[in-house]
Amino acid sequence: MMAGTNKLLKIDIGGKQGYIFSCNKLKAVVGASWVMGNKVFEPLEEIAISHPGLSKVYEGGGNALYQYNNETDIEKIITQYSSKIIKYFPGIQLEFGMALNDTSKSWKDRSHTLNKDLIKNKNQNYTECRPYKTGIAADCPFSGEAQEESYQPSDNEPVQWISKEVKVKIGAAKASNNDFQRKVGDVFHIPLEIDEIGDDDDKSYVAVVHIDGNGLGSKFMNCTDLSCTECKKEVKDVSSNTTCLSCLSRLVKHKLESSMNYLVEKVIIPLFDKKGAFDHNNDDSEIRLKKISRTKDDNNAHKAILPFRPIINAGDDITFICHGRLGIYLAEEYIKILNDESIGGLSIPSCGGVAIVHTKYPFYRAYELAEKLAGEAKIKSRPQSKCTDITSIVEEIIPEKEQKKNSCWLNFMVAPQGYTGDFKKMLENKYPTRHSRQHGPYLVIDNARDDIPKATISMQTLKQKLQSTVYNTDEKKAWPKNKLMELRANLFKSKADIEYFMEVMKSRKLVDDKEAKGFTNFPYVDLADMLHFYPEPLLDKKITKK
Q1: What is the pLDDT of residues 435-487, one digit of tens each?
Q2: Are 19 and 36 in contact (CB under 8 A)?
Q3: Hey, is 166 helix, strand or coil?
Q4: How far apart are CA 535 and CA 287, in angstroms?
Q5: Where does 172-226 show beta strands of DSSP type E?
Q6: Of the candidates 520, 521, 501, which has an alpha carbon nearest to the alpha carbon of residue 511?
Q7: Which residues of 50-67 are buried (b: 16+ CB within 10 A; e: fewer)?
Q8: 3-state DSSP assignment of residue 183
Q9: What is the pTM of this model?
Q10: How far apart are alpha carbons 307 and 322 in whole angstroms?
Q11: How does 252-277 read in b/e, with b if 16+ C-beta sit within 10 Å?
Q12: Max CA pair span of the chain
């Protein structure tokens, strides 16, 4: 810590999701995420050069922590920084909190004081984050803000007038796309629009996946130092048990970057051959990749588009969009990768939600549904918690030596009609009868917890059930696919209808007495959805580490 430094400044970006997902164009969404993760704190770092009393502790996940001494004119710095943000990055909502850096108190207490001041300032001082819109200004077709900048998507398309906020996001998307294209390599194009991710027909679906880390906030709160001697080490040499705030922040960032690289290079790309065909059993009918030529001079006119695009991969929040039939599989794999300490030097137990929606459905609504599904999964990850509603979850600060590693869960929903915003109503519509109300979340990794109920259904159980019914190698025991769909339809009818159907299945020796009587104890509605949205070759696929 530098001499004389005795105060802390916390900067938080308010309304992160609103800023990132306010536009339905994929370019604008990934550009907004790039601004949030790579550009928003650059003006403050430039200002700090001329203010030696101000030094950065950490930044990431849409917030940053700085320390400063009594000689620093912090109000002038905040004014300069805020002015640059509204000028160069309109739409970013800044929130500030300040407190004494009293080292006699724990970091938990100092952080509580910081957050309390931040919330007070947020409630008392509303800050405008966009230039005022005059009554005569025309609306931007993408954001509803004032038209301020000209924009031409390509040489063959007319010039449009859009808001500066959207223009900044689309401009930032170029850097984000270039970075992701380098990770993907030359075999595939990366998707620039949502339409490029799904299929070519009217039944095209995409999956929006939201993954939330479990207990990462507690790990940060249990830190005892803002900096330490390990801060000078390479991040790969930092201990996963570090109690240094700065080191932990670097370690989390490294973990997420390593995990995303692993997911792309070792999981997604090997699914397809160099021609873009689904590389399993010589069958390219499962997932058809779109092919496109980006420019007139493109020598790879038939290059396929990778059906995957990360949106947010920072802090404990991860969001990506992919082909509808890959969403559940990739979410499950990424949860396993995040939990694996050998990848990136840190284990982050997490829970995920997968919203499978039509390609044309508003992106933000799909994200909201995925977030709600992940919230339900987080409740399941804490069996000892008394929480019964998503909104009642509060991150408990438990001493690290007393903590148990949280289990990992996954929740998913196919929503052909999209999401209205009422999650409870959505569940009632999806599972309307008492016979159909068995549904997720599903256990992915138990992490040796002893408080998980024995009746818990795991993703592995679901996959094995699908294999033993529809994909059974014994033709006499294999269900015709239409029988699973018939069962799904009967679950929305009376108990007598289901019992009659099960008697028919028993007569064909496709179910035994126990299965026939226990039809309400298994999530057959979700199983039927998996039939369409979990390709059979991936049910028992193992990822080999290299």
Answers
A1: 667 888 999 998 877 778 877 899 999 999 898 888 887 777 888 888 888 88
A2: yes
A3: helix
A4: 8
A5: 205-213
A6: 501
A7: ebebbbebbbbbbbbbbb
A8: helix
A9: 0.89
A10: 5
A11: bbbbbebbbebbbebbbbebbeeebb
A12: 85
